[in-house]
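seq:
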Amino acid sequence: MQPWSRRWSGLIAATFVAILAHSDRPGLADEASPAPAPFADPVSPFLDPKASGGIDDAGGCPLCAEDPGVPVVQMTPADADSLGRLYATFNATLLARMDSLLSAGAWGDPASRGARRQAHLLSRMMAVNSLHYMTTFATDPDRIWEASEATLRDAFQRYSDPGVYPIARMRRGRMGMGHVCVKYDVSTDLDSTTNVGGMDLRIRVQETEFRGERKRMLILEFPTILFSVVEILIAEHFTCRAEFSHSPGPPAPYDLYVFHSMDGMYVRKWGTHQPAAMMFWSTPRDVRRTQLPPTPLVGSSVYVPRVRLELPSFLPDLGFDDLRLVDLPQPILALAYLEGKHYPGWVRRAKPRGLKSWESYGPIPPDLRVRFPDY
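struct:
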């Protein structure tokens, strides 16, 4: 076993097809493996912009094939847990490091609002979230990573914000070659709860009205601060493409993690809307960073072309920007860490999930508005 020995030797997992592992990746369940170097970045060394984009999928989703032409790595529950632990440990160490720098006066008076804001912003720029690891696995050009509900169930109950897709009724999830492919079992009805990062969410499988016809779908009721509860509708097959890239700006250099050409996932609240892309960007990662760059950037957006809210009859329907800023993906952390309040005092826990004020900073890069225009 050679942990950290190759470009794809290492990483994580935790959302629908994630927290994955293999003998040449760090954080695996093999206790004989040497521990990774303290505070090593579990993301940047394993991403290559040249590998993004995947293969031509004009004939459909390339990961659906039983024999996709490259090795398929089957994940195990032990892999999921050890890789989730890798990311959670990194994030906890990051917050502790920022707290030490704050206490040492790295940004001025430790009790000042400005110093605490700098510590918080640096943490948001460098913390590992689900889009980081999904991009890493999805852009692997040499193999496909496969998991199921059984693979990920325990990890989803042990770590916060492990991903953005439900694992209940997930028959098979695959990532690799620039693509994501998830298949769900929607053949029989279900009305139950599923635990995602410490939250019990209602989940149903049923026939539902969808764009003028009846269709069997998986429906997840997801709480939000703004709209109370929205319904996430997922078809039997969800697919999208994944890319990672560097940009010199404007407004400043940034790394971009983007999932686009999404098909099979919808949001229902005041109408049914189909996200076409979701993305996360930040100032290029450098875990040695102790000061903010001249133009710090960290942000997340969802692209919903032609979005329009169908409000109650006594209110006018509303249109919004098709490309909209949303809250950042939350960092992956052990629930025991959060419940034990082991985080610094300048970090506050939010209800029902995540950390407070975990939000974008800076504008949406102009290149993204060109690529994902309003209609």
